[in-house]
Amino acid sequence: METELKLQVPPAQLDQIRQHPMLAAQAFDGAHEHQLVDTYYDTAGHDLWKRGLTLRVRESAGAWIQTVKTAAATSPGLHERGEWECALPNATPQPALLARQIKPAALSTLLSRVEAGQLEPIFRNVTRRTSWLLKWPDGDEVECVLDSGRIESGGNHAEIAELELEIKHGSSTHLFELALALHADIPLRMSNDSKAARGFAMLSEVAAHSVKAQPVKLGRHATLEDTFQQIGLNCLRQMEANVPGVLQKDVESLHQMRVGLRRLRALIDMFEELAPAPAQIAEGLDWLAEALGATRDWDVLADSTLARIHGIDPGALRLAARARADKLHQAMLQTLHSARFTEVLLSVNGWLHGRQWRDETTLPAKSPLANPAAKACLPLLRKAEKRLSRRIAGFDGEEPHQRHRIRIAAKKARYGAEFFRDLLPAKEVKRYVARLSELQDHLGLLNDFAVAGQLLPELQKGNGELGRQAAYARGYLVAASEADSSELAASLKAVAKLRLPR
């Protein structure tokens, strides 16, 4: 199993990486140079790739190595993959040789059934590789590999300029520290695509798709610290999985990336007394939330809220709002390509993977984080319930900002129940989450109306048709919000008494 962190390097700064003094100082025996030619094989129908396998034959210094890898496991930041290899007498792949090594029976069977005659070269990489083996006094080892070259597929080619940091011995702590230190001098970007993924992507245009939150699978005997780390990485995974879609300006991908970020911030808020996040991480997540939120607000106005306006055809408003949203989606590309975004992701990954909320290598015996999560999570959930009840009790029925604070509290209470679902009574949790989701949707719609009231004046300038539509829409949404007051009061009263079973 290999565990590595992949980073894209600006092509113009490849030599700056090669000459970086930190790599020279940390390397065990200096830098090593290799020229590699990797040919990827598959069937005409790409049967291996579709089932999560890649088969590669590498030529280097007159020798051939055959390698099979599984698709990367879903660990945020880090790529964890099964890998098996063997020497070959020539460049012809022999998949049966590796089938014997692979333990997962389904993968072994798949590979053994593929005959060499069914395979054909799909694409190849021509790479200059510079590698360093880095060692630390505590015994940890990280292999640092810089690849430059090109991926060739038919008449197409794509540039390779990437840095891979692979754990050879020890934990991931030094790996993320190293990445952050290099990033301070050279602007790097985290990358989720392997060379194989890039090569297959060149063969067919596939639009990125949005990724929703996956259920968190918690063990019954896990400690509270274990679950905190696991849930945090689950949230981070959702964020990172939606970056490709956001880069393609996909509205739903941006929404799901924002959901992942909201879940992560809710988790950090829940554990603020037990595992406080460093100020740098909290500020970075706030910065990202602001950028995503502004874009999402215009998406909702253009694609959802204006469709609820009756009495006029708000077509001109929709076009204008969509144009504003599109500009913000374009600006998001700069945000995701920025040095700060990479710093935020690396910092959060390092904090979670390395459990950096600890002062020592082990937790104090009396720390609540060391207790079984099944019981230790209950005070955290009770705190979220009490906060929601207090905010409902203090609601005067008029102030939109109070309503928004209730919505946030309801969302955090719901996220908490979803995070620890595996450790709680299933039926009760399902009902609890459903009730909170209904209230959240209700308050969310009213919040969309309130946000629209703040955005529409930006489209209301002038006395033309656009201004008249914006003025009408603002009035309509205010009236709709006021008409909903009695229904909202009943919903809040019911939820204020809602409790998870003890």
UniProtKB/TrEMBL annotation:
Residues 1-206 form the CYTH domain. Residues 221-502 form the CHAD domain. Pfam families: CHAD, CYTH. InterPro entries: CHAD_dom, CHAD_dom_sf, CYTH-like_dom_sf, CYTH_domain, YgiF. GO terms for molecular function: inorganic triphosphate phosphatase activity; metal ion binding. This is CHAD domain-containing protein. It comes from Telluria aromaticivorans. The lineage of its organism: Bacteria, Pseudomonadati, Pseudomonadota, Betaproteobacteria, Burkholderiales.
